[in-house]
Amino acid sequence: MPGSDKTLDKRPLSPHLQIYRWPVSMVLSISHRITGAGLSVGALMMTWWLVAAAISDSAFATVQGFLGSNFGVFLLMGWAVALLLHFFLGIRHLMWDAGWGFGPLAQQQPVVLGSGSRIYRITGWGVIGITIGAVLVVWITGFRVWR
Amino acid sequence: MTKQTQNICSSLKPRRNIDPVHSGSGAWLAERLTSIALVPLTLWFIASVISLGDATRADMITWLHAPVSLILILCLIVATFWHMELGLRVVIEDYVHNISIRKSLLFLQRGLCIVAGLSCIIAALCLGLLEG
Predict the structure, then answer these.
(1) Is residue B84 less than 8 Å (CB to CB) from chain A?
(2) What residues contact residue B72 under an 8 Å CB cut-off, 6+ apart?
(3) What distance separates the 2 farthest-apart alpha carbons in chain B?
(4) How far is it, in rounded angstroms, from Cα A33 to Cα A11?
(5) Is B120–A60 a contact, with Cβ atoms under 8 angstroms apart?
(6) Of A49, B31, B96, B131, whose Cβ has the fewest other Cβ atoms within 10 Å?
(7) What is the pLDDT of residues A97-144, one digit of tens each?
(8) Residue A27 and residue A41: Cα distance in Å, rounded?
């Protein structure tokens, strides 16, 4: 907010993140953004991968060597987690865009604070569960094929 | 007048900290369309990458010589970098408050997405159409 001398006044906030319970939809929302930003870096890695393959054998061997190193495998595993989480959360977003998935399960249900009767909480936990399953499938398949 | 309304009234110049894009609804729709396209394309890409594994350059050339793979990877590249540009745009607009820095970053990120996307497209075409 501007002060009388037109500079920003930095007034303290009372603590909130470390006090109030974190709703699952809040955690998933910021995770969707964080994984999106991380996947942008992953897309640049994909660019390096493809361009090196187009350039020469040695350039591609460098990329594959980096991706096959311990750090590279760690990055790839993290990339799989980010991709799958962003993927399933994105589908949840698309369902919302189509109009489905808000509000209480039963139309006439009164608003009860703290109850689990909001369908977006159920889809939220569902996404977490599906992502964990998909990540395990991808990791295990990847390791089986590569080692 | 209270001090707060005095502050607001004293700065009734036209707002300079905004940069209207004029195509917000187009961007919203493009984000949804690229997302829908990316659902099958991402699954295909994950499966391809896993099956490629310890590929050599020759394996990549063989992979992309199949017309279906070439088509799919080109669609994937366009959808990914378009989707990425839209997403990064939203993030920068949310978190960067200085108008000059924000405009520069938005310009740079769009340039980066275009250059990276073009590089990927040309690389894929080289792998898929040239004989190695």
Answers:
(1) yes
(2) B41, B44, B45
(3) 78
(4) 27
(5) no
(6) B131
(7) 988 877 665 544 555 555 556 788 888 999 999 999 999 999 999 988
(8) 21
